[in-house]
Amino acid sequence: MTAPARGTVLAAGAVVVGALPWAVESRYVLGMLVFVALNGLSAVGLSLVMGFAGQVSLGQAAFFAIGAYVSGVLTATYGWNGWVALALAVAAGALVAFTVGLPIFRLSGLLLAMATLAFGIIVYYVLVNWAAVTGGPSGLTGVPALAVGGFRFDNDARMLWLAWGALLVVLAVSGNVVDSRIGRALRALHGSEAAAAAVGIDTARLKLGVFSLAGAITALAGALYAHYLTFINPSPFGFAYSVELLVMVVLGGVASVWGAVLGAAAVVLLVEALRAILPLLTSAHGAAEYEIAVFGVLLMVFMIFLPSGLAGLARRTA
Amino acid sequence: MAAEQVAQYLASGVVVGGIYALIALGFVIVFGVTRIVNFAQGEFVMLGALVMAALGARGMAVPTAFAVSVLGVAALGALLYRVAVHPLRRAPALAVLILTIGASITIRGVALIAWGTDPLVVPAFSPGPPIVVAGAVVVRQGFWVLAVAGAAFVALWWLFTHTYAGAVVQACAVNPRAARLMGIRVERVALLAWGLAAGLGAAAGAVISPITYATYDMGLMLGLKGFVAAVLGGLVSPPAAIAGGFLLGVVESLAAGLVSSAYKDAVAFVVLVVVCLAQVLGALPWRVAEEA
Question: How high is the ipTM of this complex?
Answer without folding.
Answer: 0.88
